[in-house]
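Thread title: Can someone regenerate the structure for this chain?

I was given the following input by a collaborator and told the matching structure tokens would be attached. They weren't. Posting the sequence so someone can regenerate them.
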Amino acid sequence: MYSSSGFQGNFDAFSDQEAQRSPIGVFDSGVGGLTVLRQIYQQLPNESIIYFGDTAHLPYGIRSQEEILQYVREILNWMLQQRVKMVIMACNTSSALALEIVRREFDFPILGVILPGAKAAVQQGQRIGVIATPATAKSNAYRQAIMEIQPDVQVWQVSCPEFVPLIEQNRIHDPYTTKVARAYLEPLLEQEIDTLVYGCTHYPHLAPVLRSLLPSHVNLVDPAVHVVTACNQELDLLNLKSNHLPMPTRFAVSGSPQQFALSGLQWLGYTPLVEHVYMSDATVS
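Best answer:
Regenerated them for you:
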């Protein structure tokens, strides 16, 4: 777990008030992390946010651990330059493959989505299904986290490689998306799951489709809700919670700002102003 003494070193030049007013960094491969952002708006309305979407490298779920680590380190170094007080890794693939490594390398708290999601899942049921990207599913991160918390539950994981591209293309209501979702859910339904975990922050965008295909008794677990709850607790612990009005959310991407802005309108209800960041030298255009 993160040490508050190490964190304080990053803010020696800050007053307590300046540290509290510093932004929280949130990043994902694309629009998936907007599900986390919306939860921050609801649970932590006084916090300022910097959101980064690594859309040039999307989707993360098909990448190797070496690639993910390279991208995450570049993003965190950029976040460090923005003087964030905390980072939420709003990406299950990054949380599975990079979180523990980069926590040892950076001097600010970094929260991942998997442990909060796993804790919520075991409180919901005993027969747990996890839908995830290929990299997250292969890592077994959710199974391991769930079994460590509650060894007597049963866990089944399904790799869903087509979901993220379909969501990024705003094809939620495309009949093909429903067909794909039905195929992914079939092996989990055969196991009579009572709980389904969104093992990717993109997947809550598919809630209407998934809900239509699942029995009504199956609980849906959105780790985005629970990682922001954990963020709230961590801010309290470190005396970093803001009591001031937030700055407007700052959005940056490594790919097309225009494409992200269009997607942002769909998921946020407003068109965000989006910067383009070249991660190789961390310059903004």
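Residues 1-9 have pLDDT under 50 and may be disordered.
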